[in-house]
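Input/output pair, single chain:
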Amino acid sequence: MTIIAAILLFGIIVFIHELGHFLLAKKSGIKVHEFAIGMGPKLFSIKKDTEYSIRLLPLGGFISMEGEDESSNDPRSFGNKSILQRASVIFAGPFFNIILAIILLIPVFLYMGSPTTTLNKVLDNGPAQRAGIVAGDTITKINNQEVKTWQTVINTLNKSKGKEVNIILTKDGKEKSVNLKPEIKDGRYSIGIETKMKKDFFASITSAFKTTANITVQMFKFLGQLVTGTLPGGIGNSVAGPIGVVGLVSDAAKTGIINLISLGSLISLNLGIFNLLPIPALDGGRLFLLAVEAIRGGKKIDPNKEAMVNLVGFGALMLFMVFITYKDILRLVNK
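Output:
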């Protein structure tokens, strides 16, 4: 069942990605030959103006547009549309994945509740308990900065680097001020407190947006470390390929639907952000080439040269995927 859950999850994420490309292509008047879910031989297809098909291997999908990778005189071809129209079609896939990530997080926060600035628990022998902070206190300020979200508390404590902070709290209309030094735990600075969760639909939407934004920032930091070679543990131990991701999905499926949905949100966001990187063969690479075309005053890049660049990029990505898959297998064997 966990393998089926993984396949369904990947299928939905890829479907949403390709749906983004497809809807914007149709809106721009581009002729779409095929909209396929899966790869390999066709299992089922229906032909209208566009052929809609389901293919044997539930890994990936694609849309085939007129004039996408070759010259075409058809006025409905991809290459004959404006730079803005082509860019919107390419950008739509990753954007739909980012939106899906937000949508999937809403029921997660609705189930779990959204973090508040009121404390649910104060851990024994932590800096907060020693300073006299108790459950039910509400944090209103840290170092004279007004606190409206739990994320502000986390960020401010991490920025302190263990230096003393001043915290203003209220409870039953009474205000108190404490000074304490955060302690490092699991790579983060904390004072030994847990937030009280509140179940609220609109708060869940807000939390979904903020969490997506925070994860996106962390992903770009990760990519920065990847490029500079400062990634802790090395790339092979920090990146998962298809086998590794299936393992993560399987583990999440065993622990419940909420964990599976939460992981699905993370995978969708990763797919969206990764596809926007300016790497040949990715959506970001194609957007980069369109930006070059715009800088050149609309003078198009030779389709053959563009195809060659994308082919080289695709080959490099495949080699990278083989390396990561090899690392996945080694981790699986060692486990």
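Residues 104 and 265 are 6 Å apart (CA to CA). Residues 303-334 form the longest helix (32 residues).
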